[in-house]
Each structure stands twice: as structure tokens, then as C-alpha cells.
From TrEMBL:
PANTHER family in the record: CENTROMERE DNA-BINDING PROTEIN COMPLEX CBF3 SUBUNIT B (PTHR31001:SF90), UNCHARACTERIZED TRANSCRIPTIONAL REGULATORY PROTEIN (PTHR31001)
Main location: nucleus
Location(s), subcellular: Nucleus
Signal sequence, start to end: none
Stretches the record annotates as Disordered: 1-21, 102-137
Top-rank lineage group of the source organism: Eukaryota
InterPro entries reported for this sequence: Sec_Metabolite_Reg
Protein keywords: Nucleus
CDD domains given in the database record: fungal_TF_MHR
Protein name: Transcription factor domain-containing protein
Amino acid sequence: MNGWAAPGRDQRINPGDRSLDGSAWRIRQTSFAPRSDGRLPVEIDCSREKVRIKRHILQNDDQVQFLHSVVADLERLPYHAALTTTIARVRDRILHLQFGDDAAPHDGQEAGPSASDTGDTAETEAPAEQQVPDTQVGFRKFRDPSLLTALEHLAWGRTSGKCFPHKACGCKHRRHHAEPHAEGMPSMLGRHIDAGGAEAAVPDPDDARKLVHFHIQHLAWHHNCWHSPTFLAECETFWATGTYNHPLWLALYLSVLSATVFGTQHSEKAKAAIGVDTARLPSTQQLFSSMITVLYRHHFLQDLTLYSVQAIAISTEVAHNLGESELNATLIYAGIRISECLGLHRIDDPPALAGSTEDWETRVEREVGKRVWCQLTIQDHFAIPFTETYGISPGQVSTSYPSNADDRDLVHQPENVPTVSSYCRNLVQLAVLMPELADGLGTAKQQLPLKQQYDHVLHMDRRVREVVNQFPPFFLKGDLEPEASIPWLQIARKSLAITAAEKIIMIHRPFLFRSFQAPAYAFTRKTCTAAATTILREHNALTEADEVSIWTHTAFCITAAVILCLEIYSTPGSDTTTAEHHRETVRAARQRLASRSGDLLAQRGVTLVDVLLNEGSQYGEQALDQRVSMGFDWIASVLYPAKNTSSGGVSAEQLMFAQDSHGPGPGSDFSPGAWASSDVGVGAGFDVWFNSVFFDNAQDMVL
């Protein structure tokens, strides 16, 4: 037979067949093209499939035997007829362990209505000549699609993934011990990089060493995209010899330096700890621009490597503050696709068999892959309110969270033990809620009725609080002993408190504007106002403590200030005390933002706050009493042009039911105030909940 010699109905492959033993199982091109054309025969090394099949059998055999005994015991019970569903579920589990997720029932096992139950025997029973042994069905069903993809990818010049960290696979991403690169390095050390015609200063090795060490101790917890001893060893080689393993490693190096310079430029305490003359350091913008130049100069979209993804993920620490949010968004999506090509979304856990071992380098690379994928997931999912979509589909990912392990040994620790991975491991648990939030509001073309949407928002509010309540104690309460030995723990705890408050706001974003207009959404307004006040209080505490700068601190400070501006001009004119208190809080935040030189995001925040405060001051008490303030009429006319009244204004009722075909009508139980007074299932108000979770006492609240 011409073509590929693949297993068919008459040419079966038994996973337990000893003919599979050997160095590899190969499928050869027998006569796909004449040999006289000069082409070499194509060989596909499938030794990994053989190992995977054998490992699968060994791991699951004991469980299968045990479950068979459970089924036998259940069937001997006098009332076994009442346990039909339970027995069927156990048998389904046996099938799953043997053949995969979607294996069909066999040998008379029940997994749903039988043919006799439906009376459709002729259509449900397969002809005898088409029935094949179970093992072969499972093998063909779950391996042939992957095999077909691998064959197609040969023609396309692509790889099938799922072999990260590419240590023992045969794909083109397999890493070999190549000679280190030294292109242009003598001119780099302490002077300049000739990056495609653009000169970008870099720190000399002594300064760079101090910056990298500071980053490891005080900043790496926020992204956790590397194994610090490995990166530090690569840096030492680079500083000593000017060589590196891959041209795109330089992008990672520059990304780390740019994040460090940015994080320390507004902290005198951090500058003193580093001990570097900041005047001779390149700026954050210079280092970031050099990183971008290196990425494109060395074709990061073609030469796929984890170094590029690490550089992109870490560059988020500075990109938004440099006014490069659009560039960052496109780079993150590119990083996600590169990661998928490398197989980061399908990283298998190491075998748990007794006596099995994994070499240290493979273990490190596997863990780094998980860490990078975790960070990409966080950034992708938290961007949903701004992109209105997400690039990582949770149902198509099998990579587990990174271990709660420190870099020195990568040994998994209990959750109550702080490690460099703790922050991201907890943050990603909030991030994975965001696709569910977006999907629960309906599709882009068919939004659900507002009542259903708001019910969903309240449900997700409760989910966020439940996740936060389960954070380990060292992230919720201050503890001097661990914070004294772990330099990043205190700021990580305060950062997580700010982030948790901002994620509550993120959950309520779909109804945030409406909440300042319609009493029905009073819970959203009250919750977001309290969360904004909390964010600004914690931001002030971090500023007074002279802590390192984290980009989210600036971003969330702006969000909180805007929300309080909305609250100021939606507060009844009779309540001047509350409005003035909020106004002073916003002004203080504005001053903190204005002091951040070189932070374009902060400067834009200052401009936005000024515009909002000045715009709001143009409206008098009459507008406030009508609950139409701060240009809301104009904003609403843009958002909901079909709902405008003849006078150009938008009533609260119209705003509530804009874009809702299921608005109030005869028999409707949806009315203003329905949620404001209802039990939303989240317990006490935001202030009470937040303070009880994150603070031991009132004194700690103001620290």
C-alpha cells in the first residue's frame, strides 16, 4: 500500500506489545515519493508515545483493579438495583483511567440509557464485524488525532507541542548545548549595544550585578517568571565573558534591568539598599526600548524561545507606566501564542511512579514553564475588562499551577509557607474567575437581560471574597517574624490587599456607571466606593513607607481616584462632609501621582483627576439632586444614544434598562432598589469584610 504505514483495522498496535520495546517506534514513509527524486525518507520518532502509554498503564492499573473490586462488591449487595447510577459512574471512571475522557461503555456496562430502554436496538448496537478489542479502540481513538496532527505539521514546518521543556523530544524546539553567543558583546560591557543602528546604554557589570540581586530579593515575587539561580548564573557568565546562550536572552536581561530601575527610582530606601549611583544608570525608557529592539532584531516571532516570553511578561512591570499599553497588549498576545507553540499550556507533571527521577535541569525548566504560563494567564484574564475578550481558553489548558516552592530546591511546600511563588499562585486564583465573569454576561452579540447580568455580578462578587478569604495567613495579617526574614513579604501583603480591593471593583465594572444613577445598583456603588477608599489608603501607606514601585500601585490608584470623583458629584448636596472628605482623599492621591517623574501613567492620571474635579464643579445642586452630574448626560448620550430623552437627558430608569429587552413591564419583579435592600449573599459591607480579612486591629489599618 502506498502512503503512510499507519495502524488500521487490519494492522493493530497493542500498547502492551513487546514489539514496541527498543529505542524508538518509527513510522516510515514507505513509498510516498520515488527515491530517485533525491528526497530523504521521513522518520517520526514516537518513542515518547511509547513511554507515555507504558507510564499510563503502570499508573492506572492498581486503581482499575481496585475499582473493579468495588463494582463487584456493590453488585453483590441485595439492594444493588438502587445503586445503578453509582455503579455506572464507577465504571465510567474505570474507562477514563484505561482509555481517556470520552471512552464509550462496553461489555454491557451502563453509562446512560441502554438500547432496550430506548427501544432503538438496531441503531445503537454496532455490527459485530466493526467491534474491536477495547484497548485498541482506546488507542486508536485517542492517539490517531494527535498522530495525524504530527504528520500534518511535518508538511507545515510546525510542531505538535506538549513536549516542553524539550529535553528528550525530537521537535525543532529541542534545546541542544550550543556554543554561547558573543555577537557584539565586547562593545556592550559598560558601554553601548549596537542594536540595529540604535544605541542604548546598559549598566556596567558591577552596577548590573547589584540591580539583578536587588530584583531577585525585592521584585521577582511579583512576576515569578524565572528560576533566579539559573538566571543569575547566566548573568555571571555574561558579565565575565560577554557571552550568552541565545541572542534573545539579552531581551530578558534588559527587561529585568528596566523593571529594577523603574521600581527603585522613587524609593530612597531602595536606592540606598542597591548602592548604585542612579545618575549613571540608563533610564527605564532606554532599557525598555533596547529590549524591544533586541526582540525584533533577533526575530522573536520566528525564533521561538522562552526567553522572549519571559522578557515580554516581565516588561509589563514598566510598559504601562511608559505609555506603552497598546504595545504591551500586542506583545502579551504574541507571548501567549509563542508559549502555546512551545507547549507551555500543556506541560505534563513529572511521573509520580516510585523510583522515578527527573534531572535537575529538566525540573527547573518545567517549573519555569509553569511559572511563565501562570503569569501570562494572570495578565490575559485581568485584561478582560479592557479587551472584552481573552486569549487563553481555560478549557484548553492542562498545565497545573507552579509549585509553592522556593528556587533553592523547588520542593513543594504547604500553602501556609511563604515562597517566591506564593503571590502569583494566589493571584491566579482570582484571575481565573474573570473569564467566567465575562461569559456569564452573555455573548457580544446577545447580552443577557440586566437582571440576570446583575445576579451574575453579585455571584462573582461572592466568589472573589471566598477566594480572598482562603489566602494564606501571611498575606492577610502582618507578622513581624517572617517579614523580617523575607524582604518582599510585607510589600507583597500590602500589594495583594490593594489588588483584592481592585478586583472587587473589576467584578462590578459592568454596572459601575449605572450604580451612580440608579438606586437598584446601590450595592455596587457602595462596594466600589469603599474599595476605592481602601486602595487610596493603602497606596498612601506604601508611599509613606518609601517602598519600591509596583506598576499596579499607580494603575489602581488612578482607578480608585476616578471612582471617588464619581461619588463626590453623585452625593446629595446636603451631605457636604462626606463629599469634602472624598475630595481631600482624591487631592492627596493626585499629589502622590504628580510626584512620580518619569511615570507617564501617573501623569495622565493627574490630568484625568483634574478634568474630573473641574468638570464636576461646574454642576450645581440642582444637577446633583437630579442625580445627573459630572457630564453623565453627555457620557450616556454616547453610550446609549437610542435611550436619550427629547431634552437630551437620561433618566435613571432608562439608564438601568438600556440595551435590555427584558426591562420593567407588567408583572416584572425588577424594580429600583430591588438589590439595594436584598441579601446579596456576601455578608457584611466591603469595609467590614476587608478589614476583618486583612487587618488585626484598627491600628494596623492606618499603618
